Amino acid sequence: MSEYKVVFHIDEINKLRLLLNNVGNLLNVADNKFCIEVVANSEAVKCYTKNQDADVDINIMDSLNQKGVKFVACNNALMGYDIKKDALPDFVDIVPAGVMELVKKQSEGYFYIKP
Amino acid sequence: MSEYKVVFHIDEINKLRLLLNNVGNLLNVADNKFCIEVVANSEAVKCYTKNQDADVDINIMDSLNQKGVKFVACNNALMGYDIKKDALPDFVDIVPAGVMELVKKQSEGYFYIKP
Amino acid sequence: MSEYKVVFHIDEINKLRLLLNNVGNLLNVADNKFCIEVVANSEAVKCYTKNQDADVDINIMDSLNQKGVKFVACNNALMGYDIKKDALPDFVDIVPAGVMELVKKQSEGYFYIKP
After folding, report:
1. Which chains touch A (3 or more CB pairs under 8 A)?
2. CATH number, residue C30
């Protein structure tokens, strides 16, 4: 059994379903252990906001989070779109700069994938 | 002479020509040896299906394959789009999960590029 | 204080502002040193051409360049779009193949980010 660290990058809202499929497919690969983080910056932080349309996606993220997937939002982007912390689900972590998080994770041995 | 390993990721059909240009330009760089793999997942697996419109692209891929470029299709995506193995050119290899292949290649020292 | 090397890849004109925001946000992260290179290939080399519409962007790039960010254009793409060297700002460096530059930088320990 190998252990892989993977950071997924999303900065476009319309890539969310593609990204969630990617993450789900990765977790379904048997006989491996994964350490997965999703970093959303730019307009993609809106994917985390709770609203009727996105409920299905939020539920998928919640269930992935319960399987160990970390979801992260860029604070620069949250401020840019005037999204408050309490508009986000509890499972979302906020980092000061999404792009720095992408750099930091890669420096920790995470592999970068941009769906 | 250096040897470089590169994995290209494609998940949008309309990025195919861009990707093939990238691969071709890389192979044209003199004095280097390349180990190149193209991983198609999501809708991009349709790029591999044989049909009149795509004949030019299939020919380009075939010729790149003869120069050593490996073309890979995600089986999750093939099933999602109901594409059978015999609809694909012989030079295409099928992997269970494209996203896992992207991780595996990077763990083997391949550099990731997403055109 | 850590030092990070990062290569940003752009191949679509409409991703320019997003990319420049990413680079700016990264530079704003305190207590770190960055070695940043932006590689433009395909149609994105047009982002470097001086024209009225793009003046704001050229100014932003110029100011980022003065903070140490390197901007690079793919010569294959410049030739494809018939863009001459003198149509580019002085701060832009030309490389024979953008995709090779992306490979080379990663082989030198740069982390890849595609906004």
Report:
1. B, C
2. 3.40.1260.10
